[in-house]
From TrEMBL:
Keywords: DNA-binding, Phosphoprotein, Transcription, Transcription regulation, Two-component regulatory system. The modification 4-aspartylphosphate is found at D53. Residues 4-120 form the Response regulatory domain. The keyword Lipid metabolism does not apply. SMART domains: REC. PANTHER family: RESPONSE REGULATORY DOMAIN-CONTAINING PROTEIN (PTHR44591:SF3), STRESS RESPONSE REGULATOR PROTEIN 1 (PTHR44591). This is Response regulatory domain-containing protein. GO terms for molecular function: DNA binding. One of its GO terms (biological process) is phosphorelay signal transduction system.
Length: 122
C-alpha cells in the first residue's frame, strides 16, 4: 500500500519528476509550488510524508517544516528536506525545525524511495 505524499518545491521540473517516481511506486501524490501552498495542502490532504525543498521564495522549507511539526494534526507527519547546499549547518537547521531526514540535491530517486521506506517502516 502506498502513502499519501506531498511534494513541495518551487522548481517545476524537480516537483514533477519526484511526483512521477513516487506515483510509479504506488504512492498517492499531491504537489505544491511554494511553502504557503504546501501548508494549505497539509491541512486538506493530511499527508503521511512531505518531501520539502529548503530554498523557496515565500517560506523556507525550515519554516514550513517547523509549522507542520507544531500543528496538532500534522506533528507526526514525516518530513524529508531537500537542499542544493548540503552543508552541515543546513542539516542542523533542518533537524532543529523537526525534519526527519535530509537529502542533498541532486539525489537519486532510488535513494529517496529507500529513505521514505526507512522513515515509514521504522
Amino acid at each position: 500500500m502506498g502513502y499519501k505524499i506531498l511534494v513541495v518545491d518551487d522548481e517545476k521540473t524537480i516537483r514533477d519528476l519526484v511526483a512521477f517516481r513516487l506515483e510509479f511506486h504506488g504512492h498517492q501524490v499531491e504537489t505544491a509550488q511554494n511553502g504557503t501552498e504546501g501548508l494549505a495542502k497539509v491541512e486538506s490532504m493530511h499527508p503521511d510524508l512531505i518531501v520539502l525543498d529548503v530554498m523557496m521564495p515565500d517560506l523556507t522549507g525550515y519554516e514550513v517544516c517547523a509549522k507542520v511539526k507544531a500543528g496538532e494534526g500534522s506533528k507526526d507527519t514525516k518530513v524529508i528536506l531537500l537542499t542544493a547546499k548540503g552543508r552541515k549547518q543546513d542539516e542542523d537547521e533542518g533537524h532543529a525545525a523537526g525534519a526527519d531526514a535530509f537529502m542533498a540535491k541532486p539525489f537519486r530517486a532510488n535513494l529517496l524511495l529507500a529513505k521514505i521506506d526507512e522513515l515509514m517502516n521504522g
